[in-house]
Amino acid sequence: MKMLEIGIPAEIHSWLGQFKSAPLEEAYRETYLDRDRLQAIIIVGLLLIFNLLFISSDKELLGNEQPIYHIILAVRLFLTLFNLFYFYLLLQFKEPKQFDRVTFLALISTCSAILYIDSTRPPTFFFHLLIDITIIFSIYIFFPTQLILQIITATYFSLGVCFILLTRKNIPHVAEQCIWSALLFANFFWVFG
Question: Key word Transmembrane present in the record (predicted)?
């Protein structure tokens, strides 16, 4: 059955992003699994590149002689190895449900590592929070998984960012307003998507 013959838009709940028919959703997901897999690999590949590029900023902010720098370096190395393993798993799975599960696990693990790294930043440094908002948009826009899994991951990450933002005392008021506004917009973006 070709996907063009199904009439997909009428078969999707408006705000849930789920199909009314489970077999229809399964057929759709199986048809686009290879494309979704490639999209996830490209996004995680870019994340890996940025993860490695930020090692130099860790060194600048913390100095390579502090123990926390070595812990962060280990976290970045773990994140790199974990995401390489995620690549391997993506190539092994043949079913969309397996893809969703491993993608959800990879997103939660990656977000946890990023939040840990963010929490080690000096109190006067807040620019990483803007990058975090970009990550939230990326979870909604670029990760081809079920909407509910995107919402759970983005909410978890957003709560971590909120906690970090609330613990920072020296953020300029204008910057803080911009970050809160962007954070709210990023999380309500999926409603309009």
Answer: yes
